[in-house]
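QA checklist item 7 of 12: single-chain prediction sanity check.
[x] sequence parsed
[x] length recorded as 836
[x] structure emitted
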Amino acid sequence: MTVLKDVDLMAVSTEAPMIGRRYILNRPLGHGGMGAVYHATDRLTGTPVALKRVIQPGEAAQFASTGDSQDYRIALAGEFKVLASLRHPHIISVIDYGFDDQRQPYYTMELVENAQTIIEAGAERPLVEQVGLLVQMLQALAYLHRRGVIHRDLKPRNVLVTDGQVKVLDFGLSVMAEQGGVGVGSTAGTLAYMAPEVLAGGQASESADLYAVGVIAYELFAGKHPFDSDDVATLLNNVLYVAPDVDLLNIDSRLTMVLERLLAKSRDSRYRTANEVLSELSEAIDQPLPLETAATRESFLQAARLVGRDAELAKLTAAMDEAIAGKGSSWLIGGESGVGKSRFVEELRAQAMVRGALVLRGNGVSDGGTPYHLWRAALRWLSLLSELDDAQLGILKSLLPDLDSLLGREITEAAELDVKAAQNRMFKVIEDLFRQQKGPVVVILEDLHWAHESLEALGHLNQIVADLPLFIIGSYRDDERPELPTRLPTMNVLKLERLDEAGIAQLSAAMLGDAGKQPQVVELLQRETEGNVFFLVEVVRVLAEEAGTLERIGMVTLPAQVFVGGVQRIIQRRLSHIPPESLPLLQLAAVLGRYLDLDVLRYLEPDINLDLWLNTCSDAAVLEVQEGEWRFAHDKLRDGVLEGLAPETRRELHGRIGIAMERLHPNDPALYTLLAFHYGQAGNEARETQYAELGGKQALRTGAYRDAIALFERALVLVLKRQTGRISQLKLHQIEIKRQIADARLGLGEYAQARILYRENLNDAWALKDNRSTADALMSLGDVSAALNEYPEARQYYQESLTLYRSLDVLPLVARVLNSLGSVAYETGAEDEARK
């Protein structure tokens, strides 16, 4: 569940500047040659972010003003795609990117609070600490360069430090340099940190980035710039022709030699790679420096480019292009667990954003999923982009309880309708949301093997997808739910097989560089993994741990076998990297679900440094963050944590989670189903019954009939077990639950099953001499008969219920029955009676 934090959106002024109808600009944080950066609030999550509005240079800006900037925007979106794919502990994460209403580009990043520049953080600190900051910066550069990204604008303001951790940000976009030209005062860098060859009109390169490292290092050691001058002409001359004075640094001669080589005028005289600099820094200070930590290793493993899927990607991108042009389609992506479905759909997401489509996401959950869980995130986003009337918003609010806060206005939930109309009403609103979108929309739905009621909404959209610029992608485990395509017969099906030998070789090279191309490495990966991507990454991880670094894998003797004991051994090896003190919170997180509720974790363990714990688990590749939301990197890892829990421990954790959720989010309908699940797992049958009924009523109200049946049937089982209380009260409670199960059956068109339950209720109500329950059963039987066009029986049931309701003076139900009698009269041709 998304919980709004840090801002009361109801209190936000409607005059506050807004970007993409999602980000509220709060205040400027700074500006430079490539644009302005703002402290902003994400309306979808309520969390603060840093938003950069990119200034378009030269001709590109002129094209943008005339509307002829498609090529430029596609090229720029391609650059954003690269930035958004970067994941490294010392690199600011790009969260989102797009174009605002004026088609001006922007992107959002994680917000680093209370940060200092690397010069400020290292001022007057011991030499070893200053070198430590440089090491973190160089590790970030090594990662960028390995991914083919040149920073282009490395300077102290773009290397921030918070809590001792370096964060490199604001990479120069290559398209900006190409469009704007490279030279003094251009957007390709800052004069004081530009390499001589770039100032002379040459191309920026890895060597140019390392030159900037040299300038920053000099400034860190000396407390001033190596060519300190207020005169631009003098500064330019010094950068091009004057050697920096390293004698005043008062540092070891070996360290000055490293600086001199970094600041060499000729690029050929400088270091070739950031790892070379790290190696020589290590020798210069007589201390081992990490060329690769567990965290930096993970950045290479997890962010390797997509390989071995060229044919599948070409097929789906072609279909996406047709959808963007107006002929939509929907696709099921099947494959076994670990075959690479998530990585594949992530590439499709990037392709969609490059093409200017609005990308919406949803995921199925294995435990305690709320009605239409798959669609909630997408509907929240669409509600910000659409113009719905009060009635439509009222219908949507039954599904999105926080809609008032999201839209910044009070919304009255729609009145309950006849059960047969609830689902159709909800589907119509969802359809209207998609029809209102002015541009192409791509919907990515993951883990459909866990979805149930949400599939009904998907089936409804499939009926109209061909008429809209709409592209739907759903992924599922075909080994766990092979019948899913039959539930969604209009969707195209594409199966992802394991990687073949060529694909394994490509992925090996993407993760390991030249070492991954060696035949013995490829042969080992083929033998151990048989092309399952999850296993393949795990094998490489183990080999790197044994060899020391990824690059050394090809230099050491490879084992005959890596894993003995199958997948469980793999999982437990990964989990063994979690420190013992961090394991209890990880167990709590696993019980919560694949996606982490950080508010609940903070509430239950207030003394733990949650940020440090998240980083620890991320470094071990057990947790990951996706679009600002933390989750287990793979369900297999969560399952591995759960398997290590004793049953009594698991029950205790479920109970604590239920209490925390109740106290943090009291009376939140979006949590009823989840609370029923947690209390059920905890063995608290009273609380489980309460929330199963509440969740069932909420599901019934929104037309999620299958979910409603499951919840009410569980509540009925629990009520039947109850041995305390008056027999008549327990029987009436059972009658009420069975009536709602029957209502859901009626909504699904399962008339025979509904009639059986209503008749059972009628007999029980007669036995108890309870007129209200009798009237309810009679009216419901009338509804079944009317749905089956059995109008004489329907009229009889309605008349009998009307008599009882009048005697009880229940006026709303009297009106309801009269309306039903009118409908029956109209259907049988008795129009005068119908008007009466």
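[x] summary fact logged: Residues 389 and 395 are 10 Å apart (CA to CA).
[ ] second reviewer sign-off
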